[in-house]
Amino acid sequence: MAIDFTKDRKETRKPKRVKNIEIPRGWKLPEEITHRLGSRTGKQRVISENNHVLIVLHKAPLKHDTHRKSLFLWRNDKDIWAASDQGSGFAALGEYLKTYAKIEESLDDEYEKAVNAKDFFNLLEEIAPILRAIKNTYSTLQTAREIAGEALIDARDKAEELHRNIELLYIDSKNGLDYAIAKKTEEQSELQREALVAGHRLNIIMALFFPITAVASLLGMNVPHGLENAPPWVFVSILAICIMFGIALGFMVLRKPNRNRGAS
Questions:
Q1: Among 46, 171, 182, 213, which is most buried by a count of CB atoms within 10 Å?
Q2: What is the C-alpha to C-alpha distance for residues 199 and 192, in angstroms, rounded to an integer?
Q3: Residue of 134, 117, 122 lying closest to 168 (CA atoms)
């Protein structure tokens, strides 16, 4: 009985590899490099095979960007550089770093204009992806310099400077946000303190006048009580007694509770 293995062979066949759609079509990269690339760019990195060097960099991310656009720099085995943008490799790399420098200047201007917590928070949202991207760019160019030699020293140093400046800007913005929040919290605490003081003063006034108000209300009722025709000294005496009760009540309100009472 013959057994047909055709179906099994089809099922076990390896899936066809998808080529990277972002690499320029005219580039003839070694297979050792192309096999290490997926259909998309992936992270920033350096791939070196057979004296070929491929540098993968991410362009400055825009706000709410879901996909990072890339810049590819390729040095072939004849020590000739090419770039996926703007022709010559070093010219494209220079423009790439200039873009980050312009973004840094723009972020500096926004930092100078920031005055409240919302401004600093929005600024931090803009800086965070830029900082992450330029940090990885610096790390990638450092690795590329170690592999490709001195040709990338200036670009590496520029990326390091940009990373340091943007990182400092991020720290300053974070400090600005913390200060704005602390200042707002302090203002709220001061308003609460003023409200407590006002309420405390109102309680004192109420305590002082409560006995007088109570006695006046009782004596003002339309019920005969025998004091309608009393001499003036009776009124003065009642007023004095009420004031004394008011002072005593106010003292009780102002007295601080004994926190040690009941402590073992």
A1: 46
A2: 10
A3: 134
